[in-house]
Amino acid sequence: xxxxxxxxxxxxxxxxxxxxxxxxxxxxxxxxxxxxxxxxxxxxxxxxxxxxxxxxxxxxxxxxxxxxxxxxxxxxxxxxxxxxxxxxxxxxxxxxxxxxxxxxxxxxxxxxxxxxxxxxxxxxxxxxxxxxxxxxxxxxxxxxxxxxxxxxxxxxxxxxxxxxxxxxxxxxxxxxxxxxxxxxxxxxxxxxxxxxxxxxxxxxxxxxxxxxxxxxxxxxxxxxxxxxxxxxxxxxxxxxxxxxxxxxxxxxxxxxxxxxxxxxxxxxxxxxxxxxxxxxxxxxxxxxxxxxxxxxxxxxxxxxxxxxxxxxxxxxxxxxxxxxxxxxxxxxx
Length: 333
Known about the structure:
Elements: E1 6-7, E2 20-27, E3 35-41, E4 47-49, E5 52-53, H1 77-100, E6 129-133, H2 139-146, E7 150-154, H3 158-168, E8 172-173, E9 186-192, H4 201-211, E10 212-223, H5 228-233, E11 247-248, H6 251-260, E12 263-270, H7 274-286, H8 290-310, E13 317-324
Helix pairs in contact: 1-2, 7-8
């Protein structure tokens, strides 16, 4: 790691405090085998990888056919389980987005309302524009498009982007387009495990807020290092995923970041399959035997999921619905 350009922060990117301390040393088990420190802010509690590779060098840490978010490989049992779970989770994500856009006024001036087709809070999504940040190979966007959203995506990895275009006929752009999107262009912006990858953290949140309509919503999912599986596996918790994950959130630090830029959290949800998948990967990093791995990982995942049922802030992955605050809209609360 030492011979490659690194970015080292001297203060917390959320609150600006320079009272930061080294908390954990985490190995990049997936790609390089290099060690990356995690820092905690003593003022606000935010955790982040520090130092981390620059934009010019971070690409090599993603450069693997096994990086599931950017590929469609089904090799190996873990990948097969991932893809099976993805089919279920894509439907859940579309339902979450549908609920988040209930009552939003569409581009044609039509207020969307519930339909009577079923009891899942469906809405008429015609004319609602959705942008998926880090759309990968496009499965979520494809499902949202079939539900009636007008969809587009941002994906920096060329092969994944081309797959989304070729397989599903989607509109997918490289990351440069993100910074040139006009204000109020989208009714909903989704980031499914993407925010933790973005080097320009604060600038990205500002841009996301600006591209939302006044009634629009950002739907953001991130790993939560307060979860039981995170505390069980510690530095071998797979969702630390250094150095690809630069920022490591809790519900409180995510909400603090969003509030700093005029977004207020109006809903919180969990992704129920994540603790099981993350625990399986973590067992691989622990180098447990196959028997131990396939017994312990489901148990850890189950405990983590059960805890999230009575306390959403302990979910392995948290999903928040965020909207522009009254103050940022110039309204009196």
